[in-house]
Amino acid sequence: MRKRRFWYWIGLTSLPAGVILLAASDSLSRVPEIETLFWLMLVALVAELFLVRYPMRYGYTDHGIWMSVSTPIVIATLVLYGWEAGVWMDAVITLVAGLANTLFRSTYPRWAFLNTVQSVLSAFCAGMVVTGVDWLIARESAWHFVLATGGALMTYHLVNSLLISTNIALFEGVQWGWAIRQNLSAFPQEATVMLLFSLIVGLLVKTFGVSGLVMALAPYLTLRQAFMLWTRQHDLYHQTIRSLGFLVQKAHPYTGGHLQRVAQWARRVAQQLGLPPERCELVYEAALLHDLGKTVLDERILNKPGRLTSSEWKQIKRHPQLGAEILGGTPFLAPVVPWIAYHHERPDGKGYPYGLKGDQIPLEARIIAVVDAFDAMIGGETPSQQRSYRKALSIEEALQELKRGAGSQFDPTVVGIFESVVREWQRYQQIARGGAAR
Amino acid sequence: MSSAWLTLTIVALCMGALGYYAFVVLPNQLHRWRCQSLRAFARAVELRTQGRFGSADLLAPLVNEVALRMGLPLQERRRLELAVYLRDIGMVGIPYAVLNKPTPLTPIEQLTLDRHAELSASIAEQIPGLWQVAPLVRLHHVVYAEQPEAPLAAHILSALDNLLVCVQRGYTPEQWCDEAGARYHPQVVATVRAVCRERPLAESLPLHRSAALWL
User: Fold this and answer.
1) In CATH, what number is assigned to the domain containing residue B43?
2) How far, CA to CA in Å, does A285 sit from each of A59, A266, A370, B45, B88?
3) Considering the domain boundaries, does residue B96 fall inside one?
4) Where are the alpha helices (DSSP H) in A252-405?
């Protein structure tokens, strides 16, 4: 299905791209300073080959896009030598670099083709903006250079982001709106830095020709450094969540598999409830960290095999607020703090630690409450994951318990959705077992 | 001015802006993010060791000020700030009963507690991009009389960590300076004295309390 979608999409985009390339090839021979253009293309190709991975917040898999810093060189070409030269240059460097990636990074050649098609479309749109500026302002004016470069860069970036987001939405199965928001999240910083680099390259080539390119090496390396730091910032976020998760597991070994399962189920329930994808990811992260407060508690109470005394229960009941306090000083985790603080509240107001009622409890906290209770009842998949002080229930018994508590202990809507998620999971399990048996 | 010179001037200005962003603004932002994420770990440990809540947040600006006055370079100051948040992370591996024992510790319990610096350092070594902070973390209780050759940053961290504990127990910074003796680096003690002379330190070190622990 995805493969068919891929070929429809590639057919839809390659038709106009082919027409554009044909139209551009007509006037390509009339481009002046062909030698400078050749060197410019070589530099852009090198930049295209040294890609920087830009991660995207989507679970913990290796989702992300490979970005190059060749765009400013293409923009400079568009402004200095016209849209025809820019479109052809972008097509050649994207195709050659894409094929090289096929060899060295084991990517599919069809991706190289799709990227080339999309580069042609983006460069063409940017070229049209330059042509528009040509009509409005004389080419000799300094304003022409600045406006054409700025306009072309913004257009290129926007069109390219739209096309890449469509790719991600089609092939990763995520919402288009989410993909575009992810792609454009760092747009102001990226656009400012890219604009500065485009102006530098354009001015150097305009004034010094080929030798100007050598001088562009320093800004190129600077731009790469900026990209690498953005990437590291993104990775840091994931590292923090993962490390905090490990901390919880260390404090309470039972929670290892429990946290992973709760996180995955909570995300699925959030998706089924129609929450936006970025919210679903936050629910996953909150569920992974919901027992963080237990790291503070006395491990003798946490690992006690028998029934807890009332004073020990009092200690345990502190963990939601302790978890919230731990994360309170970390601004980028601020959205999940209330969900962690309220994940033991109940719709009837008998929960802890605050005794909130009904809608006072955030939906995300209600999701975590249901999934957490269910996983605690079924007690993990292996005996070692089961809690020593309580006999594990079967999945059906646990679902019955949830339904009995719907309205008083648990949110009835969440319980209903969660049941369908569990049924879906059971179907997959059956298919997997059947596959293994064969 | 010829067009070549004009171009070079504009290029230099653009390069300046680009360089400032890539080599000053972004690394600074990255460092702040690092500190904020490590603050979560520090808080977990502080809540576990009752009475220490908020100590890293109090210590970080103080350490930075003393290090700046002592002329430590920016990279070293950044490493020191990260070490403030990481220094006690090894406490997660120390039993709760030892950490919160109301009576004096037995020699074995004291030995167990003393392991936290080594534990913290080994955890720091495992975190990508933070291994260079590990030596400072390992030496965060260094005694000047025993290891005068230890890095100055480690002496600053060791002295100020102890100062904070003493101030929270009711000592004045001046008393702490007077009694420091050969335990802490004399230059660090002199700098702390100078800082205290300019503004009363005790007022800037309020005791933080965790709401959850008072439920």
Assistant:
1) 1.10.3210.10
2) 9, 10, 16, 21, 25
3) yes
4) 255-272, 277-289, 299-302, 310-316, 319-327, 337-341, 363-378, 395-405
- How many Cβ pairs closer than 8 A exist between chain A and B? 136
Q: Are the beta carbons of B92 and A226 separated by less than 8 Å?
A: no
Q: From the list A219, A229, A295, which residue is nearest B48 (CB)?
A: A295
The verdict on a CB contact (< 8 Å) between B7 and A240 is no
Q: What is the per-residue pLDDT for A66?
A: 55
Contact B47 A232 (CB under 8 A): no
Of the candidates A215, A232, A329, the beta carbon closest to that of B39 is on A329
**Nearest-CA distance B67 → chain A (Å):** 24
Query: Which range has highest mean pLDDT (A25-34, A121-130, A332-341, B176-185)?
Result: A121-130
CB contact under 8 A, B18 and A193: yes
What distance separates the 2 farthest-apart alpha carbons in chain A? 88
Note the pLDDT of residue A57: 46
Catalogue all structural domains in chain A, each as residue range(s) with its CATH number. 2-230 (1.10.1760), 252-437 (1.10.3210.10)
**Domain interval for residue B164:** 3-207
pLDDT tens, B36-71?
888 888 888 888 887 677 788 888 989 999 999 999
